[in-house]
């Protein structure tokens, strides 16, 4: 895997519950790892729902292999948030990993 391809600094986050100070908890995402990767858009679509124009981009994030990544995690990059749909171990060699992701944006 060529390191020059991995040019974006990203955060891998998993769901956690944070105390809200009133005896309850609030669902949030806690950082698991900061890593270098690349974002490659694959497909986009737009639609109107409840009077709001929405946009969704499907893509993949390419990164070095890490075990334990699951579809309930998210990846953040700059102000963007990507929901992981599936995790692919490229060639089953534990070297390169592709995270198939969806990014939703309300316009």
Structural features, described:
With 107 residues, the chain is an all-beta fold. It has one domain (3-106): Bacteriophage SPP1 head-tail adaptor protein (Thrombin, subunit H, Beta Barrel). It has no helices and six strands. It has strands spanning 8-19, 25-49, 52-64, 74-77, 80-89, 96-106. Strands 1-2-3-6-5-4 form a six-stranded antiparallel barrel. The chain is globular, with a radius of gyration of 16 Å. The mean pLDDT is 88.
Distance between the termini: 36 Å
Number of helices: 0
Write down the secondary-structure element order. EEEEEE
Structural class: mainly beta
According to CATH, what is the topology?
Thrombin, subunit H
**In CATH's first tier, which class applies?**
Mainly Beta
Shape: globular
Give the percentage of residues in beta strands.
over 45%
The strand order across the widest sheet is 1-2-3-6-5-4
Please tell me the total number of domains. 1
Which superfamily, in CATH terms, is the homologous superfamily?
Bacteriophage SPP1 head-tail adaptor protein
Q: What percent of the residues sit in helical stretches (DSSP H or I)?
A: under 10%
**Would you tell me the overall average pLDDT?**
88
pLDDT < 50 stretches:
none
Biggest pleated-sheet summary: 6 strands, antiparallel, barrel
């Amino acid at each position: 895997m060529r390191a020059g391809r991995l040019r974006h600094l990203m955060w891998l986050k998993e769901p956690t519950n944070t105390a809200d100070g009133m005896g309850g908890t609030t669902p949030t995402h806690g950082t698991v790892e900061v890593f270098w990767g690349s974002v490659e858009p694959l497909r986009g679509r737009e639609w109107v729902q409840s009077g709001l124009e929405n946009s969704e981009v499907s893509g993949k994030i390419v990164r070095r292999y890490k075990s334990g990544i699951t579809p309930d995690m998210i990846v953040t990059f700059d102000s963007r948030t990507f929901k992981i749909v599936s995790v692919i171990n490229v060639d089953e060699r534990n070297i390169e990993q592709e995270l198939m992701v969806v990014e939703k944006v309300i316009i």
